[in-house]
């Protein structure tokens, strides 16, 4: 397979009355990713209420995947952006590289942006209830090459779909057609001469195209005008004819250079976006570092305070243990004294009992004596 030149497409979708949308999902108009070797039809798919709870969801979908040949695939670099209508630098943009194929014809982001932030009118994403979404797509490689599947834009009325068994003959005819078109500046011997009315219409169409910078959206109109004017026999000055023929003969190079510029600009935007994302990540990391340092300082102070309290508790514990030991010693001494006094009490009690017995005998003697003399 010969090398394929990347094809680029860009599409902006203004979603009106966004807050009043009631369906679960909405599709944009179909837009083309167009190049010399590749063309692919895409559309944006959004879920206004989100396919993931609390988040706006957005996807890139291959619009014509059902008509593509078996085994097709597209290696794509893409980005999806919600435009900040107050400050473009604050737009939300996500992208990446992926491979679309028969099994995967729709890819994107289920949690693209939080709905609360999206509906916050101060953020700038919803202005006059309009959401602006932009898609940028580069098709890096198409398998199989889609040349056999495409019509040459506006250069021939013959563009029927080709069956697989007719591929070789059709490709040969297509190559011959391209070569003859390039050599003759888009004219051929069997092309009819356009009428003066067609020439005038083509001139007005060309003026309309030339009224602004060249964009992919005017390519088909420009080609239609060039095809007619390059075959015109009248209605153009000799200088205009030379300009038309020169531009028509070099149109492929012009368009290829334009795509290269668009691709370079797109890749620059991707790199710039990546750089901004990294810078934002570093800023967030710095803020987190500052927060962590503050938390660590607070924890260190708490640790010092806890250490001080711990030392106080340990000191009180040591004193309590010391006092407890003294108390235990005093308790043992008191116990010994109690035991000694208990023995002495028993001895004293015995002596008192004996004394009471003696006192009783003495009282009896005394009473006998008293009775003798009274």
From TrEMBL:
Which positions are tagged coiled coil? 292-372
The superkingdom of the source organism is Eukaryota
- The question of whether Coiled coil is a record keyword is answered with yes
Residues forming the MATH domain are 8-137
Q: Which UniProt keywords apply?
A: Coiled coil
SMART domains (UniProt xref) = MATH (SM00061)
- This one is known as MATH domain and coiled-coil domain-containing protein At3g58270-like
Originating species:
Punica granatum
Q: What is the lineage of its organism?
A: Eukaryota, Viridiplantae, Streptophyta, Embryophyta, Tracheophyta
Q: Which gene encodes it?
A: LOC116193984
């Amino acid at each position: 397979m010969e090398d394929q030149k990347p094809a680029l497409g860009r599409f902006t979708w203004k979603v009106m009355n966004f807050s009043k949308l009631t369906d679960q999902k909405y599709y944009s108009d179909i837009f083309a990713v167009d190049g010399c070797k590749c063309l692919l039809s895409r559309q944006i798919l959004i879920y206004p209420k989100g396919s993931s709870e609390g988040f706006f969801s957005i996807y890139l979908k291959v619009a014509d995947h059902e008509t593509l040949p078996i085994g097709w695939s597209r290696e794509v670099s893409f980005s999806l952006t919600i435009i900040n209508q107050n400050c473009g630098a604050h737009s939300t943009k996500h992208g990446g590289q992926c491979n679309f194929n028969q099994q995967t014809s729709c890819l994107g982001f289920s949690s693209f942006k939080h709905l609360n932030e999206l509906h916050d009118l101060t953020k700038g994403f919803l202005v006059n209830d309009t959401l602006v979404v932009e898609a940028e797509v580069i098709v890096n490689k198409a398998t199989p090459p889609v040349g056999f599947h495409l019509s040459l834009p506006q250069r021939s009325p013959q563009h029927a779909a080709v069956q697989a068994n007719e591929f070789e003959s059709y490709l040969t005819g297509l190559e011959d057609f391209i070569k003859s078109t390039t050599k003759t500046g888009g004219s051929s011997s069997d092309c009819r001469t356009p009428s003066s009315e067609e020439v005038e219409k083509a001139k007005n169409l060309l003026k309309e195209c030339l009224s602004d910078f060249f964009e992919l959206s005017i390519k088909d109109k420009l080609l239609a005008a060039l095809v007619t004017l390059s075959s015109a026999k009248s209605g153009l000055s000799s200088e205009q004819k030379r300009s038309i023929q020169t531009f028509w003969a070099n149109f492929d190079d012009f368009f290829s250079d334009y795509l290269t510029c668009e691709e370079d600009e797109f890749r620059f935007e991707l790199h710039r976006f990546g750089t901004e994302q990294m810078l934002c990540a570093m800023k967030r990391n710095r803020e987190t570092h500052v927060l962590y340092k503050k938390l660590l300082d607070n924890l260190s102070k708490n640790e010092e305070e806890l250490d001080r309290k711990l030392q106080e508790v340990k000191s009180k514990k040591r004193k309590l243990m010391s006092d407890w030991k003294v108390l235990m010693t005093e308790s043992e001494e008191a116990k010994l004294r109690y035991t000694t006094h208990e023995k002495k009490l028993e001895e004293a009690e015995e002596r008192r009992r004996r004394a009471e017995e003696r006192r009783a005998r003495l009282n009896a003697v005394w009473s006998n004596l008293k009775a003798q003399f009274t």
